[in-house]
Write a structure and sequence with these properties.
The chain is of the alpha+beta class. Helix content is 25%, strand content 29%. The protein has helices at 49-61, 78-82, 120-125, 129-146, 154-166, 192-195, 214-229, 250-266, and strands spanning 2-13, 16-26, 37-41, 70-73, 84-85, 88-89, 171-178, 180-181, 183-188, 202-206, 236-244, 283-286, 290-294, 299-303, 310-311, 316-321, 333-337, 342-347, 352-353, 358-363. Keywords: Hydrolase, Metal-binding, Zinc.
Length: 368
């Protein structure tokens, strides 16, 4: 196995340039039946833990035999990680355009995207998965060329590059974190059973549609391919949420890396035995049952349930404090009660909230 590194300039300001560091693990002999893997982390600037998981995965892979190429990209959005406000990293949204950094990928099937569109006829002409991968890569370049004359949007410039880097893959893992969260994974409904192989305790099942995020941007073209060719879809793409933002935890990173390592063993990418680790019972929730709680008033919220904890209908899960009403004790606290049974998955990192702010997200109507 050989590890190589290359850098690619991806952004710049008047103060300097920003580059992606692209690591590639290449086997001595490629097994054509083994899936090619692409893993990236830290597209949102404050979501740091995926970088640690990549480092720990590299440590685990040392001296191991792999059967196919593995591409690893830590800090996939270096500009986002550089935008600091005091000690806080403002990295979820582009500070110039206001766009969510993980909703900017190219939809190959939308007429609003300009060039780079893939037609059903073009998919029919692709006789193999490799043909289709080439088509996807060509469409990215077509989109880039189309926008050269007047310049390309700064969001698209980064994200079509990431899409292009992922276009060879059969497995894509996009590593994120929540504000304050537990470990959970997003995956399309056709991969519900395969999601268990990642050994995450909480699994959010989403429709196999394009929504602008990396997992959807990479699996949706393959949904279309297999629909047209009436074949089984084996392409796997997930968003892995690795705890809370603004935190690096080496011990947790090793546990995350072991789960990824064992998953790649199951997929035939790594030729080794699985590493022994605690096994999680998988809990599933459909996207329609993934509920957000919004602050009914402005105030200061106290969370009574931590991410990963269950709550019962009618239980007080948050208290909203109004310190401008201390002369009226009965109005100081607004209790927020659970309307149904559920599981807290993540909540906002700040207790200072405004009315209508998304303050907590939870699984409801969940199953094992």
């Amino acid at each position: 196995m050989m590890l190589t590194k290359r850098s690619q300039i991806i952004d710049e300001t008047n103060q300097g340039q920003y580059a992606l560091n692209i690591y590639e693990l290449t086997p001595e002999k490629i097994n054509e039946n083994a899936p090619i893997v692409y893993i990236q982390a830290n597209v949102h600037g404050a979501e740091l833990q995926g970088n640690m998981a990549i480092l720990k995965l590299l440590n685990l892979l040392e001296d191991k035999k792999i059967n196919s190429k593995i591409t690893l990209i830590p800090n996939a959005n270096p500009y986002a990680t550089s935008v600091k406000m005091g000690t806080y990293t403002y990295g979820r949204f582009n500070p110039i355009t206001g766009d969510n950094w993980n909703r900017m990928y190219l939809d190959f099937f939308s007429q609003s995207q300009g060039q780079g569109l893939i037609s059903d006829d073009e998919i029919k002409e692709c006789k193999s998965k490799q043909d289709y991968k080439i088509l996807i890569k060509n469409k990215v370049n077509e989109y880039r060329r189309y926008h050269q004359e007047y310049g390309i949007n700064e969001n698209k410039n980064l994200f079509i590059t990431l899409q292009e880097l992922a276009s060879d893959a059969d497995i894509v893992l996009d590593l994120h974190t929540a504000g304050v969260g537990c470990r959970y994974v997003y995956g399309p409904d056709y991969l519900k059973e395969q999601m268990k192989e990642l050994n995450f305790p909480f699994n959010l099942v989403i429709p196999p549609e394009f929504g602008g995020a990396m997992d959807e941007a990479t699996f949706y073209p393959w949904v279309k391919f297999h629909e047209i060719h009436k074949s089984e879809n084996t392409f796997e793409s997930y968003t892995l949420e690795l705890g809370s933002e603004e935190i690096i935890d080496s011990k947790a990173g090793k546990a995350d890396a072991i789960n990824i390592f064992n998953y790649l063993v199951k997929k035939g990418v790594i030729e080794d035995k699985e590493i022994e680790c605690p096994k999680n019972e998988a809990t599933f929730c459909l996207l329609k049952d993934y509920k957000s709680f919004f602050a009914p008033k402005s105030g200061f919220v106290e969370y009574h349930k931590s991410p990963g904890e269950f709550f019962k209908k009618g239980e007080k899960i948050m208290s909203l404090y109004h310190f401008d009403k201390m002369e009226r004790p009965e109005e100081v606290i607004t209790p927020i009660l659970a309307p149904v049974d559920g599981i807290v998955i993540n909540h906002a990192p700040s207790s200072n909230v405004k009315r209508g702010m998304n303050i907590l997200e939870a699984f409801t109507n969940f199953t094992s």
